[in-house]
Amino acid sequence: MVDAEIEDIPAAGPTRVGSRRALVYLGVCLVLIGLNLRTVFSSFAAVLPEVTADAGLPGWALVVLTTVPVTLLGLFAPLAPFLARRFGAERVLLGAMAMLTAGLLLRPVEVPGAGHLPALLAGTAACGAAISLCNVLLPGLVKRDFPHRLGLMGGLYTTAIVASAALGAGLTYPLFRVSGEWSAALWFWALPAGVVFLLFLPVAVRQRHGRQGHAHGGVTVWRSAVAWNVTAFMAFQAMMSFSVFAWLAPILRERGMDGNAAGLVVSTSILVQMLGSLFAPALATRFGDQRIINTVVALLTGGGFALSVFGPLELIWLWTGVLGLGQGSLTAVALTMIMVRTRDAHTASRLSGMMQGVGYGVGSTGTLMVGQLHQATGSFAAAGVLFLAIGSLTAFFGYRAGRSRFVGDPSG
Fold first, then answer.
1. CA count, 13 A, side-chain hemisphere, 304
2. How would residue 75 be classed by pLDDT, with cut points 50, 70 and 90?
3. Looking at residue 6, what DSSP letter applies?
4. Which of 21, 84, 195, 325 could bridge 89 with an S-S bond, Cβ 3.0-4.6 Å?
5. Per-residue pLDDT tens for 80-122?
6. Alpha helices in 255-315 (DSSP H)
7. Which domains does the chain have, with CATH numbers?
8. Is the pLDDT of residue 6 over 60?
9. Alpha-carbon span 291 to 396, nearest angstrom
10. How far apart are CA 75 and CA 70, in angstroms?
């Protein structure tokens, strides 16, 4: 994992805890934060037809609502280390959870005379900004405060992030059926975010923080061909990953599945991602060259997405299982490239910032293109073709990124 505070001068100290029990409490809080970082994407997708029909959303609004949060993941990522140096990582993380809770509460609000759209846009934007800060700061806190339990804590918090997407996909439509209101189903997800904010509050407020400076010098990743290949690999996998969160449920519902069944299929597919994310990094790091695994998992993901659109509906569990296994492996090996293509933690941190800024920014165009193609053609068939092409591009850049070269070397 990459520490967002690695270039702080002096180095940020660990979170102050008074006992082993308090350290366990901190670990639980960090995992619970991870459990709230993807529900905003999958919960909205689960009730998208109901929101569209009830709120009368225009086509452009659907495109924006599925694109903006991913775009903000890239735009706000560079801000997180600056805020952490100024206020302390714990307090920034607390503020991000407050912003996430507020955004989730705001999202379903109906504005008198203006309908649901203004609050949906503002709430979704707040959620995207908050998640961006958490994405950057969480790995650093885990690495800094649990150096002797890094494998356990890293596995728990990354699994929690994947589980959050599965929970949003699987529970939102049943919540809608019970309550009869899509707004109540979306409001529900503010509850766990608010609880985690309250749990983390005493940890964050008692931290003392002195201002840190920023280290300069070292490798310039923006001039490295290896860094650009890794970043392109990350960007194209992000295009597919966030399109799955945003559009797979609507795709299945357009194909004739009811909301409960579609949510269950998407949730299961996301859970299958855990298998890939657990085993793919270990397999990738066994070799100095990752060209084969990068290519294979990219093609599995693009093919699984296309089969979910075009394949016989009777085999949808197989298609989405292939998609889940490919996507989980693809995301994991893309992140693994940060470590295997760099020689030191400072270069890894800079490559991570480049990947998140460019990768998520470009990656958000995937959800944008799917929405625009659906709006223009009236079906998701064009999106299936699109992701065959994107899967091929991911495989191409994954092959190039997998070559045994390093950022900062003369050949890199």
1. 30
2. confident
3. T
4. 84
5. 888 888 888 889 999 999 999 999 999 999 999 889 999 999 9
6. 259-285, 291-310
7. 18-205 (1.20.1250.20), 220-412 (1.20.1250.20)
8. no
9. 9
10. 9
Find out whether 269 and 162 touch, Cβ atoms under 8 Å: no
Look-up of token digits 């308090």: 22
Amino acid (1-letter code) at residue 309? V
Average pLDDT in the 33-56 region?
Answer: 91
3-state helix, strand, coil in the chain (%, to 5): 75, 0, 20
- The pLDDT of 216-241, averaged and rounded, is 86
Mean pLDDT computed over 18-31: 85
Strand partners, 115: 111
What is the model's pTM? 0.83
Structure tokens at 260: 């409960």
For residues 135 and 198, give the distance between their C-alpha atoms in angstroms, rounded to a whole number.
Answer: 20
Any idea which residue has 């293109």 for tokens? 369
Q: Which residues contact 189 (CB under 8 A, 6 or more apart)?
A: 36, 39, 40, 43, 104, 168, 172
